[in-house]
Each structure stands twice: as C-alpha cells, then as structure tokens.
Amino acid sequence: MSQSSFVYVTYIRTTAETLWEALTQPEFTTRYRMGTTQQSSWELGAPWSILFADGRVADSGSILEIDPSRSFVVSWRHEITSELTREGFGRCTFTLEPSGDAVKLTVVHEMDVPQSKYIAAVSTGWPVILSSLKSLLETGSALKLTGP
C-alpha cells in the first residue's frame, strides 16, 4: 500500500477506445496536457516519458501493466525538480470503465513516501489536465490554460 496517493474520478461522454487514444497518442496529449507529449510503444515493460515541446523530459518511467482500452499502469518519476526527483518512482494507474454513454476514468497516483511533495503537486495538476481532456473529448476544445 502506498503512503501517499491522489485519486481522481471523472465521467467523460466518449467511448473507451477514443479515451484510450486521447490518453496515449501524442497528437491528443499535446492538446490538453500543456503542450507536452507522451512517448511509449505502449507495450509491457516499455519505457514511457512525458516531454516538453523543446525535448526536455518532464517525467519518466515504464509500462508496468497494460490492457488496451481498459487500463494501464506506469512507473513514474518526476525529472525536473530535484526535490521531487529524489522521491523516486511512484505508480500511476489509469482505469477506463464504460458507463452508459460515458466512460468512467479513474486515475490513481501513488508514492511510497509519507507526505509526498510530488503527490501534493499532482493533486493540483491532475484536476486541470483531466478537466481539459474531458472538455476536448466532449466539445472538441481543450481548456485554454492547458493548450500548447
């Protein structure tokens, strides 16, 4: 069990396949994730990273579990702020569950660090990013504050 965690649940009017694409494909992520992209082959054990537009690595890890259009788990380490990098690798789990005309998306970000400063940071970041994702998929436009 993790010592610090953040959980976010939202319902998005879309299909699991479309949400999966939005979570994993760079052409989608750059639109709602503050101009960053994710890079991975999305295979078990593959490296995973989030990159700024200038190529700097913001976060890195690997694919720990993957079930396309249903769930994935990545190990996750922040790479920009040394204080947060020193906390090491955590886990982030994305679960997609069809629910009527929507998909229930649950994101669980965990660190085995008591009172993790990284979890405190993501607890303000995830709501903005996931709200922008929801807006993008439901209206065609991401929130302006998260665009590239």
Set down the secondary structure blueprint.
Blueprint: E1 4-12, H1 16-24, H2 26-32, E2 37-39, E3 47-51, E4 57-67, E5 71-78, H3 82-85, E6 90-99, E7 102-111, H4 117-139
Antiparallel strand pairs: 1-7, 2-3, 3-4, 4-5, 5-6, 6-7
Can you tell me about this structure?
The chain has a seven-stranded antiparallel β-sheet. The model has no long low-confidence stretch (mean pLDDT 94). 29% of the residues lie in helices and 38% in strands. The chain is globular and about 40 Å long. With 148 residues, the protein is α+β, with helices and mostly antiparallel strands.
- Widest sheet: strand ordering: 1-7-6-5-4-3-2
Count the DSSP helices.
4
> Which value, in Å, is the CA radius of gyration?
14 Å
Mean pLDDT: 94
Give the low-pLDDT segments.
none
Shape: globular
